[in-house]
Design brief:
Layout (H helix, E strand, L loop, with lengths): L1 H28 L9 H10 L1 H11 L7 H19 L10 H16 L3 E5 L2 E4 L7 H14 L3 H26 L2 H12 L2 H7 L5 H21 L2 H17 L6 H11 L7 H23 L5 H9 L6 H14 L1 H22 L6 H16 L11 H9 L1 H8 L5 H22 L1 H4 L5 H10 L7 E4 L14 E5 L5 E2 L3 H6 L5 E5 H6 L7 E7 L2 E6 L2
Parallel strand pairs: 3-4, 3-6
Antiparallel strand pairs: 1-2, 4-5, 6-8, 7-8
Helix pairs in contact: 1-4, 4-7, 4-8, 5-6, 7-8, 7-10, 10-11, 10-17, 11-13, 12-17, 15-16, 16-18, 16-19, 17-18, 19-20
């Protein structure tokens, strides 16, 4: 069953592998500088394509194009995902603290078999605070074992997760509805900038989404086939999703809630529950053994509940304000409201709604509610936004059922155009298309003598560039989570040969680095050397 599913994905990959080369050659040939394109030229080109769009809409109804059209859109959508997921892979977006922590866990797992953070040569502390589970760190550690330790290897695996998530999303929507909604969903996903901003970095959001969408896909199949093996495998996927990142913990009540809402339409409810729970347990047991090996349940779940240790009232008011003043939260809210209206319209009309979509919607509602309990970073509602986006074409079809499907296509295509504009010109990833930060870090570290003592201060994201060289480090995640505190004594005593520190921190904590002299600026960092 699993081999058949992934065998199908492999065939598609083999067909589309040349697309990356074609895109790259075209990019070089036309000397395309994405961040230097003029917005006006882009918009003029878009408007110039409107007649072609009209022609394309006519072709949708053409019998001669019935078989070709779906494949062309699919290739276009997957080609865009493949290109954008790998373009400027190590530079855009830039490396940052959280990514550095998760990457270090994978490095130590690959080199020493330790789920931990190394504070100095031979000294390790538990990585209980690293919220990304083994479903991400173990695959990265394996790729490090096979291909070597560097940022390109780690982010290449993240690109694979992006592509697989897009593929499974396409199959899910096609299975639930039809090829047109599936292809439109794929194009919406392909042009959605946060997919690459959150997905290319070594984080848990997109891998978790991959396991979630895969679980929904197999849940859909299991309702048709009634096979116990599908129930079991769906449970494993739910488990892998839940342990990937704390935000996915709400999938547990979401599944329970969806089954309760649809209980009258599920003939073998108890049997499904047993096999889903068994599969979930198989994925959960290794996580409990790994994640809690160096800490208590209370400590870990306390960190999950409020990682920033901020007052609830302040967090609630700040996050509520985002949904009336900031573009991405407003966009998410609009997508979410459209989905809710479409769902309840069908519910009121007593039309069929799948267990799969019900699970996805309940999960998204819980994500939305949970967003108001902690500091409002957009990636905390990102999974719900992606689900709302892939269900958008069908939701619009439900709300505007009395209009032609071509009207829905026009609405979605306009949205795809504006998303494309955002991704190319005004997204976080677009800001760093011409960045050379990672290259500068690599060049600087490669010039350092292997025998010298190096101290990394509040920059765990730079460790992956050290290529196995010994180091000492200190970083602080929250007021309560501080790593390498004891190393500060050696730093202040002038025992280090080189110190790497963010420029902004050096300017505010200059007294800490009195025994050292400025040696070199690279990226956003400063390299200090011992004052002899």
């Amino acid at each position: 069953m699993i081999l058949v599913f992934y065998g199908y994905l492999t065939k598609i990959f083999l067909i589309l592998l040349p697309l990356r080369l074609i895109f790259t050659i075209t990019l070089i040939k036309n000397n395309l500088q994405l961040n230097k394109l003029k917005s006006e030229k882009f918009l003029n080109n878009i408007f110039a394509w409107i007649p072609s769009l009209s022609f394309g809409l006519k072709m949708i109804g053409s019998r001669n194009m019935d078989k070709i059209w779906p494949k062309l859109i699919f290739i276009l959508g997957l080609g865009l995902v493949l290109f954008l997921a790998t373009y400027k892979l190590t530079e855009s977006p830039p490396v940052w603290l959280d990514e550095g922590v998760f990457t270090q866990v994978a490095i130590n797992l690959a080199q020493f078999g330790e789920h931990s953070i190394m504070t100095g040569p031979g000294n390790f502390v538990s990585a209980w605070f690293a919220t990304t589970g083994y479903s991400v760190t173990v695959p990265i550690a394996l790729t490090f074992k096979i291909f070597g330790i560097n940022l390109f290897v780690a982010r290449s695996l993240m690109a694979v997760f992006i592509i697989l998530m897009a593929l499974v999303s396409y199959f899910l929507i096609k299975k639930e509805f039809d090829w047109l909604w599936a292809n439109l969903s794929l194009l919406l996903l392909a042009t959605f900038a946060p997919l690459y901003g959150n997905g290319k970095s070594v984080l848990g959001e997109v891998p978790g989404l991959f396991f979630l969408v895969s679980a929904l896909f197999f849940l859909n199949i299991s309702q048709i086939t009634k096979r116990k093996s599908y129930y079991l495998f769906t449970g494993v996927l739910i488990g892998l999703c839940v342990i990937t990142k704390p935000i996915f913990l709400v999938l547990i009540p979401a599944v329970i809630g969806a089954f309760y809402l649809k209980r009258k339409t599920i003939p073998n409810l108890i049997e499904q529950g047993i096999f889903l729970s068994l599969g979930f347990g198989l994925a959960l047991i290794p996580w409990l053994l790994i994640q809690f090996s160096g800490s208590s349940l209370v400590q870990v779940f306390g960190h999950y509940a409020n990682p920033y240790d901020l007052p609830f009232k302040i967090v609630l008011l700040t996050n509520l304000k985002q949904f009336i003043s900031e573009a991405q939260p407003i966009y998410f809210l609009l997508l979410f409201v459209v989905w809710l209206l479409a769902y309840f319209r069908r519910f009121y009309k007593k039309q069929f709604i799948s267990l799969t979509e019900t699970t996805a919607l309940v999960f998204s509602v819980l994500i939305f509610i949970a967003y108001f309990r902690i500091e409002g970073h957009y990636r905390y509602f990102f999974p719900a936004q992606v689900l709302a986006l892939i269900y958008l074409p069908n939701s619009l079809g439900v709300l505007f059922f009395s209009y032609s499907r071509k009207i829905i296509v026009v609405i979605v295509v306009i949205l795809i155009i504006f998303q494309s504009y955002q991704t190319i010109f005004h997204s976080w990833v677009a800001t760093y298309y011409q960045s050379t930060r990672s290259a500068e870090i690599t060049n600087t570290f490669s010039s350092l003598p292997k025998t010298k003592k190096i101290f990394i201060y509040q920059a765990p994201e730079t460790v992956v560039f050290l290529a196995g060289q010994d180091y000492y480090q200190f970083f602080q995640i929250t007021k309560l989570i501080v790593v390498g505190q004891d190393n500060l004594k050696m730093l202040m005593a002038g025992e280090m040969d080189f110190v790497v520190v963010p420029i902004s921190l050096y300017q505010t904590q200059e007294n800490l680095f009195k025994p050292y002299l400025k040696f070199k600026e690279f990226g956003k960092y400063l390299l200090l050397t011992k004052n002899i």
